[in-house]
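Box 3.1. Reading complex inputs
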Amino acid sequence: VVTCPNCGEPIEATDQFCEACGVTLAPEGAARPSAPAPPPGQDARDASDAALASPLTSSVPTAPAAETTSTTPCVACGASAEHIDADGYCEVCGHMQPGPRDHVELDLGWAAGVTDRGLRHPRNEDAFHLEMAGPAADGGVVAVVCDGVSSSVRAEDASEAAAVAAGGVLASVVAGAGSLAAATVHAADAANQAVAALTWTPTGQMASPSCTFVSAAHRAGEVAVGWVGDSRAYWVEPQGGVRQLSVDDSWAEAQVETGLMTEVEAEADPRSHAITRWIGADAPALDARVVTLAPTRSGRLLLCSDGLWNYASSIEDMAGLLAAQPSGATPIDLARSLTEFARSSGGHDNITVIVIDLPTPDTEQKGSQ
Amino acid sequence: VTTFTADTYQNEYLAEGAEEVNAVVTVTASGGSEAPEASRAAEIIIIDISGSMNYPATKLRAAQQATAAAIDSIRDGVWFGVIAGTKLAHQVYPTTGSLFPASAYTRDEAKRAVAGLQAQGGTAIGAWLALANQLFATVPAAINHAILLTDGKDESETPADLEQALAGAQGRFQCDCRGVGTDWVVSELRKVASALLGTVDIVADPAQLAADFTNMIEHAMGKATAAVALRVWTPQTASVSFVKQVAPTIEDLTGKRMAVNDRVGDYPTGSWGEESRDYHICVKVKPGAVGDEMLAARVSLVVGDQVVSQALVRALWTDDAQLSTRINRAVAHYTGQAELAQAIQEGLEARKAGDDATATVKLGRAAQLAAASGNEATTKLLSKVVDVEDAATGTVRLKSRVADADEMALDTRSTKTVRVTKSGS
């Protein structure tokens, strides 16, 4: 049993706060994602994200992090930092201060991820895992994006547990020798087990903890992409070609696949975004769907939650969106810029974007750290 | 040592623009299996010996026997005394202007003094409470409890006298009130019990008094923690609409708020033994934007000046109707139980005023709510006042003849609630 370092009460490995004493938990090996200065044009809320960014968000294997005590005034009423209580609420106006997961960035150079609460959801229930694995020469990298189902209990814990568990499985295989496709199926299984292990209390019509899953694993020119639900993976070529690698496990997609509706009709239906497969205790017992590729030209992998692709659902719109981005944008530039696009389009859902530059086969690895 | 826990049951998701936040907070005190220290407790039994207690004479005899049984239930070392009430307050035991610690010897003395009481004179409840208040002040006890028994209306003093006595006694001791027979006034005793954080009930049959007194004393002897308050913090821009105890009985605490500062108020809950109570808290907040989260209230349990447990009442604004339209079962249940109590009290009032149409509607609604919430005790009491034709639709007929005792029992017990089952939520 894992216990709270402050009060000794039992805690879940994925808990952000101790239920007993309220202390912020930073588990061993967890790390603080890079928290760069906010890009110009972002509001005060984002500015304080940097100060509040803490380890337990999207799991990132770098240096361990320290305290999360607020040093910034209340974002709502401006009360000074000492008025922010241990739970993150302003004790003058009650406003919840931006949480550690509200905005997280990770920049590994040729791979980068951004997750953001967006504008309309109270919490960021998306999580990602991004990690280099194996010898640098192989360009091994693992990426996982999970989107907590908002009508499920502990959605933010589900996405985090799934991303951590799946990332761990994939990283060990990428660093070793096994099949990436098989590892992807195993990773989704591990995610399922991690989410099913979360304790939860039935609450009204809320489902048990659930999330989506999309992963990418690369090692020496081989790529496996897997998914469960409607988080997506794209292959983006420098000349502008875009392919969607995943096929949404959604009601709309099922209608289109079975020929019952056109894409336009299905998208217009209120049920269109209902997902037909997910990660969680009550999920259909089916393997993750996996595609493999062995690119012969350089290109980028783009993983994202529906908080981004809702604003560019068709492949044409996504291609247009990507073409409109500044040429020469680095992965972190692109991830930030796409996140900002989703926020300025309404930010109705949590947004997660991972961009990975894959090296051109048969040439030297570029930019590896 | 008693430990307190506080848990919140609510749907924290609000629709855009919504400004009312509701939550049920369950407070449970547990542990402290060793008996509370006797010298920290004091007990006073106040019995009415007005002339009417002689009609029938069994009433006075039953009251004397019940008092003797209560005295027997007081643990050794607990400070105690007996007051007899007419238009004045008489100290029956001890006669020293103070209280004595209970022992075999003092209990026997007290019972002999009670056995010698004769009924004569009027009723002045305020004067009785004022004497009890004086006597409690003579001993170093923290958990002060009284039982008050009367059979009549408070007619030998003015309502202002009673108000003044209640104001003086509030926060000094708790008082459980019992009416024997049917000549007393429910609203009057309810006011006393409510001000002094006690219960009120009818003991229609004097023969049942002894068991009821014993039960009350045993309950009082189990209290280990005195002067527990519910401390409610709300944000600057918010206001508390109400704070109600909703289980085991409905008790509106809103007006009992004692301001700690601009944003914090204490609501007294009296002494606690091993028990669990539910509170319904309703806060009006300034609506946030969709995506905002606010702490609408922080509910702390305070003993002395120490916070022993706390629960958070949160508000999250969302445009997801699936989240914001969920109804929390605990909140819905107790909203229904509060409406049930109100429907009964209004229905009985209408019936007394001869407004049968209103009485039928109100008591019909009560029958419907009682049946739907599984409140069998209230359903049974209602069935003595109305004929229930269809509980599901609330269709009832007023009975043409209703015993006074049945009507008073329904009135006094209308605030008894059944607890929500916590499976699901």
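In summary: The longest strand of chain B covers residues 306-318.
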